[in-house]
Amino acid sequence: MTYELRKLVRNPRAWIVYSFFVAGLLLFWGLALVENGQSIRYAANRYSYMAYTANKRLHDLSRPLMPGESEFLYEAHDVARAISKAYENGENTTPGFVVLRQSWDELVAKADKNGYPYADFGYDSTIETTAYLQQSEACLKRNIGLLASDWQPDAVNLNAQWTLRGGWLAVALFCLVLWMDTIGAEMDNGTFKLVFTSLTPRKTIFWSKILVSLLVAGALCLTVGLVLGGVGLVYGIGTLDYPYIVHQRIVSGASLLGLGVAWSGCVVVGLLGMFLWVFSWRLKPMDAFCACLLVLAGLLWLGAWRMELVLTLPVWRLGGGAFALAGVGMAGLALRRLERKELGT
Question: What is the pTM of this model?
Fold first, then answer.
């Protein structure tokens, strides 16, 4: 294993691929900064417009107000104006802001319940409004400030957004590229006969390759945490207790990241088994790479890019575990075939 690891570390192509991966993470962080700034400006303008709309409706005589609507409009104007100023002054990440947001969410629920014609004040449905209320209540109990936006760049949130945006796909793709050097380098440079006919048993050689391949996946996941966590330190570490709304359910940051890492691990183990299985037939890394790409395409077609479904539906989590077990089985079959493989073909 030490030899395989040293060979991978000394391979210039491996470092080029790894550099592209790190560059992608930095680009993701930069886009998060831009998106966060835009979201804050949009939120400030939106609540400012809501305050203006409520005030305008109070002085509009073209339609009589419904029972209790006048009090609702006064309160909506004051709360919306306070929220807009909080966004403009950068006070939207304090626990005190949570009280304002909860008041607004309660107003939205009240408008929905009483049938006030202000759909543009809130969210699409009572279910979503309830989820926002639960999120606000959880933040109040834990004395945690609400995120300015989904892209607020603290360390924990950046990693959470990486998970929700399908970061497992980037890890899987870069693993496949690096596995071509880890597993099939001898085929590319023509030294496979010398390596596989040495005194070291083939099983030992390929077990070393498998372990190094898994280390590659672990190194990429660790890089995600270090890069996104490191750059996020400028904006604070964040907290693993933060309650995220995932598919209309409340999920803590710790649960979100834990399930995301578990899903990524299942995909990586399954793909590694597929890679070895195809490689054991053809002894061509590119064939194994293309076969794994087809598997990834199938996962995307089935909706695996929607990580909120993967993280909340039991059928997806069971499917990920089954894929990992299938990968272990394929790896075992591949090792048996590679032990008996004739190298002259």
Answer: 0.80
